Amino acid sequence: MLELKAKPREILGKRVKVLRNAGILPAVLYGSGGKAESLSLSLKDFVKIWKSAGESTLIDLAIEGAGRKNVLIHDISFDPVKDLPLHVDFYETRADQLIRVHVPLNFIGESEAVKTLSGILLKIVHEIEVEALPRNLPHELQADLAKLAAFDDVITLSDIKLPAGVALIGDPEAVLAKVEPPRSDEELAQLVEKPIETNLDAIEVAPKGKKEETEAEKSSEPGE
Questions:
Q1: pLDDT tens digits for 14-69?
Q2: In whole angstroms, what separates CA 50 from the centre of its chain?
């Protein structure tokens, strides 16, 4: 299990900017009983763990002075300019409690409909919701594009192979990926934006002197 170190955090609110400037990431741990605990951890260490674990892999969170807890990354806020985490929420798990998470879907293999028929591959779904005990949560699930041999073929939720102890949540017939026929020259031409034609004769022009009349009417209203 991946390990991440954290410390209790007393700096709150807008003052956390001082922490961020020092390369420290503010965090909150939500316990299984609903209690929230403010923490801080190394931004560099978190990014490294996050890239390995994603949001569906258990993390051993070692909190200074408070022991260890098995957690999942629940939510991350990002800096819109630097694209770096500004804040992270962790969720404490219980070993005996089923939880639901969204697991990344990794497309593998090659579609014959794309390779030989020049079809257009459409990846419709990129994450799948599953339910499992924390120890059984997969880091990712795979969808084999080899199933897409013709334009009528689709990959559905029921086609995904699951590890033991993992259940899919959702409609088994939900389409995850398919291949569409290549567009014809006529269809491509229709995609080119046509210039907007404006009928100048249909534009109403206010009669000359209308503005002056309006201003005169306003000046004669009571109360001015």
A1: 999 999 999 999 999 998 777 899 999 999 999 999 988 888 889 999 999 989 99
A2: 14
How far is 177 from 130, CA to CA, in rounded Å? 18
pTM of the model: 0.70
DSSP 3-state of 152:
coil
Alpha-carbon span 157 to 128, nearest angstrom = 8
Render pLDDT for 177-201 as a digit per residue (tens, 0 to 9): 999 998 766 765 666 665 556 555 5
Is residue 150 within 8 Å of residue 111, measured between CB atoms? no
Q: Which CATH superfamily is domain 100-189 in?
A: Ribosomal protein L25, C-terminal domain (2.170.120.20)
Name which CATH class applies to 2-93.
mainly beta
Those residues with Cβ within 8 angstroms of residue 35's Cβ, 6 or more apart along the chain or in another chain: none
Bridge partners, 108 (sequence order): 144
Q: What gap in Å lies between CA 55 and CA 101, rounded to an integer?
A: 8
Q: In what order do the strands lie in the sheet with 175-180?
A: 120-123, 175-180, 154-156
120 strand-pairing partners: 180
Q: Domain ranges in the chain?
A: 2-93, 100-189
